[in-house]
Amino acid sequence: MKNNLKVCRAIGSLTQEELAAKVGVTRQAIIAIERGKYIPSTVLAMKIARVFGKTVEEVFTLEETD
Amino acid sequence: MDKLFLLPHWCRKIGMVVFPISLVLEIACLLEIGFNLFQFEISLNDIREWLGLSAFVCGDSLENMGHFTPCNDLLPTVVDILFIVGSCLLGFSKLSDEDEYFSKIRMQALVLAVYMYAAVLIIGEILCWGTAFLYFMRCCIFAPVLFFLIFFYARVAAVRKGAKDEK
After folding, report:
1. ipTM
2. What would the pLDDT profile of B7-26 be if each residue is shown by its tens digit?
3. CA A11, A12, A13, A16: dihedral to nearest 10 degrees?
4. What is the C-alpha separation between B157 and B153, in angstroms, rounded?
């Protein structure tokens, strides 16, 4: 699963730390999501999307291999 | 997170004290270092016999055959219990910043530990037999939890270091 979390964060002028605090996870989790090393749970994905005022599909997209 | 039945964070602090002490004592017990220093007046076997547990669990025939030789030393049992409690407290207490990412790391470490233990058992089955195999199994009894602790804390340290570097 791909994501454009880094782009969304840059547009929203949010640091990893700030985003992590808003969605209630650690900065390590945000880093892992941005690097594509960790696929967040549905709840976390929805929380992240809500922070940016977007739908989950706008932030996270399925790859063909998924 | 609650579904993982993790202990509260404060339990980890107790684990951090109990685990290293019990690990050192456990190694000392396995190598029989200072065994005679910890002899107790009341033997554990007396208690077991009094409760009728030995016969119930092991059966009289096995005890008569000498598979369960009487031991007047409480230390190994106490150390084993301390080690089990300490490792559980250390391994299964929430981290100060526990979240779903660390839960995933925890699960991965647990799976890896089981695989590693299976590999060790296979090696033991091939290389050891007879009494040596029993001694080998005695040494390996806590291997899964040890492997888990090593994998989990190594991965957590690596993730935290990576996050620090990115700053």
Report:
1. 0.88
2. 999 999 999 999 999 998 88
3. -110
4. 6
Chain A nearest-CA distance from B122, in A, is 32
From B5, B71, B64, select the one nearest B38 (Cα to Cα): B71
Tell me how crowded residue B57 is: count the other CB atoms within 10 A of its CB. 11
For the stretch B113-146, pLDDT in tens is 999 999 999 999 998 888 888 888 888 889 999 9
- What is the token pair recorded at B85? 């409690």
Q: Are A2 and A60 in contact (CB under 8 A)?
A: yes
Best probe of the B interface among A16, A19, A22, A26, by most B CBs < 10 A, is: A26
Report the residue of A15, A17, A18, A28 to disrupt the B interface, i.e. the one with the largest count of B CBs within 10 Å. Answer: A28
* Count of CB pairs separated by less than 8 Å, A with B: 31
The answer to whether the CB of B120 falls within 8 A of the CB of B140 is yes
CB B108 within 8 Å of CB B155: yes
CB atoms within 10 A of CB A54: 15
Q: Do B100 and A27 touch (CB under 8 A)?
A: no
Cα–Cα dist A55/A53, whole Å: 7
